[in-house]
Write a structure and sequence with these properties.
The protein is of the alpha/beta class and 294 residues long. The chain contains 8 helices and 12 strands. Strands 5, 6, 7, 8, 9, 10, 11 and 12 form an 8-stranded mixed sheet that branches. Strands 1-2 form a two-stranded parallel ribbon.
């Protein structure tokens, strides 16, 4: 929205520049907002990631007496920003997750603790969170463990386009960023560049590789949450696992260091992958047959 308004005002952003988003923020706050861009209702999603200056700039898009809808999830506050003060607002709370399998949410509850309410609304259960480990985080170990996880997902009946491999470390720190292929799996990954309209450009591939930061707000039938590594399971790590895990609609496979896996075992959430995956295979077959009969 900010790019469109700035471009319409004769100040188009140059997405080839490294500081384009900072420049775009400043331009959007400075340019006058034409009447045709004003609206009666403004909906903000991922509000936990917003800064106060952005709110002031966006408010100019509202007509007098216009209404805001502000959607946020404190558990997805990966940047640890202070909550946006919204004095006088009516607050509605929803704690039901309809996206992820019921047992997956049970696994997440043990990580985030009892203070975070998380109700299950999905009809799917028995997905069985799987884990694959690597020893000390050498790039070749991470690559091999991630490849095994993708192969495991394919063996369960997921297509390559149904799988998203998400780096726990983020794009800049990931051992997978410069990897084009996990033989025989080609990775479709963000190149770091955007086109003239600000859309991210991806290299060709079959299995999507993203970071948990960039994949927020999206989902995939099968998520491989890889490069999970920490010494102590603190609040920030719990948030990152929450975000990555809840992207999965049917199956979660965690690729973690041995030390992180031990910490997860200590909170009692993780069970080894077992033969119960046959239940997931049946669910996949039912989903496919259901699609064919529609």
């Amino acid at each position: 929205m900010s790019a469109v308004v700035a471009r319409d005002a004769g100040s188009p952003p140059d997405f080839s520049q490294p500081d384009v988003f900072q420049t775009l923020e400043e331009r959007f706050a400075a340019v006058p907002v034409p009447e045709r861009w004003k609206t009666d209702v403004l909906i903000v999603d991922e509000g936990q990631d917003f800064q106060t200056a952005w709110v002031d700039a966006l408010e100019r898009l509202l007509n007098p007496e216009g209404a805001w809808w502000w959607l946020e999830d404190p558990m997805q506050n990966l940047y640890l920003r202070e909550p946006m003060p919204l004095p006088g607002w009516t607050i509605l709370r929803e704690t039901t997750n309809y996206r992820s399998p019921r047992d997956l949410l049970g696994f997440i509850r043990k990580i985030v603790g009892r203070d975070v309410r998380l109700d299950a609304g999905s009809p799917f259960d028995g997905s069985d969170v799987s884990i694959s480990t690597y020893e000390d985080g050498r790039p070749d170990e991470v690559v091999e463990a991630t490849k095994r996880a993708i192969t495991h997902a394919l063996s369960l009946g997921f297509r390559k386009q149904d799988i998203a491999a998400l780096s726990y470390r983020g794009r800049e720190g990931s051992a997978l960023t410069g990897v084009d292929q996990l033989r025989p799996h080609r990775l479709r990954a963000f190149t770091g560049a955007c086109d003239l309209f600000g859309n991210p450009e991806y290299r060709e591939g079959d299995v999507l590789l993203e970071s948990i930061y960039r994949f927020k707000g999206q989902s995939a039938p099968c998520v491989v949450l890889t490069e999970v590594d920490f010494d102590t399971l603190d609040d920030q790590d719990a948030r990152k696992i929450f975000v990555g895990a809840t992207r999965a609609t049917m199956k979660l496979i965690v690729v973690a260091s041995e030390r992180a896996a031990r910490m997860l075992d200590a909170v009692g959430y993780m069970r080894p992958a077992r033969a119960r995956d046959h239940g997931l295979r049946r669910a996949l077959r039912r989903a496919v047959l259901g699609c064919r009969t529609v």
